[in-house]
Design goal:
Helix content: 40-55%
CATH class of the largest domain: Mainly Alpha
Radius of gyration: 20 Å
CATH superfamily of the largest domain: Winged helix-like DNA-binding domain superfamily/Winged helix DNA-binding domain
Distance between the termini: 49 Å
Structural class: mainly alpha
Shape: globular
CATH topology of the largest domain: Arc Repressor Mutant, subunit A
Strand order of the largest sheet: 1-2
Order of helices and strands: HHHHEEHHHH
């Protein structure tokens, strides 16, 4: 018997993957971030079967990452636009692009991120907004947050009571 997949444990990574972890969904979001909105654009860009595209677009709409907007009454046609939640996915796509270029592009970079004002190639990295330090710095780690269930608390080191109070007030912690 085939297992349906991991059970939701409250893990934000797992919850995110349930919405965008399927490769077609991820690629549809990538193309939407690049400006695609119409069914035929997605189909042409991705070379995806219409039934699969229909299913994935419906899933992305149901997840609140995209919304449908009618652009023609006869025949009825709709465009798919990113919602704020979908637009917030841009840094995830850019991070994966940069990581893929670094580790899985033996022939060289086929797609790069550039600054549209200067034309310079960007070198994306994730940084802590408060300190400006890269999250790759060893001082950063995952910790059980205020809403963590018991399973997550067993997996991740606990935050101190002071840190929990700061996070619940939206202040974070100072290092």
């Amino acid at each position: 018997m085939k297992r349906a997949g991991p059970t939701d444990t409250g893990c934000p990574v797992l919850r995110s993957l349930k919405h965008v972890g399927e490769s077609w969904s991820f690629l549809i979001l990538r193309d939407a971030l690049a400006g695609a909105t119409r069914f035929d654009e997605f189909q042409r860009n991705l070379d995806i079967a219409p039934n699969i595209l229909t299913s994935r677009l419906k899933s992305l709409v149901d997840s609140g990452l995209m919304e449908k907007r009618r652009y023609s009454e006869r025949p009825p046609r709709e465009e798919y636009h990113l919602t704020e939640r979908g637009r917030d996915f841009r840094p995830v796509v850019q991070a994966l692009l940069a990581w893929g270029n670094q580790h899985f592009a033996p022939e060289g970079e086929s797609v790069v991120i550039v600054n549209t004002e200067t034309g310079e190639q960007a070198e994306p990295t994730m940084v802590d907004r408060r300190s400006g330090r890269p999250l790759s710095d060893p001082v950063f780690t995952n910790a059980a947050g205020p809403a963590a269930n018991e399973r997550i608390r067993r997996r991740y080191p606990a935050m101190t009571e002071f840190q929990l109070r700061q996070v619940s007030r939206g202040r974070g912690t100072d290092r």
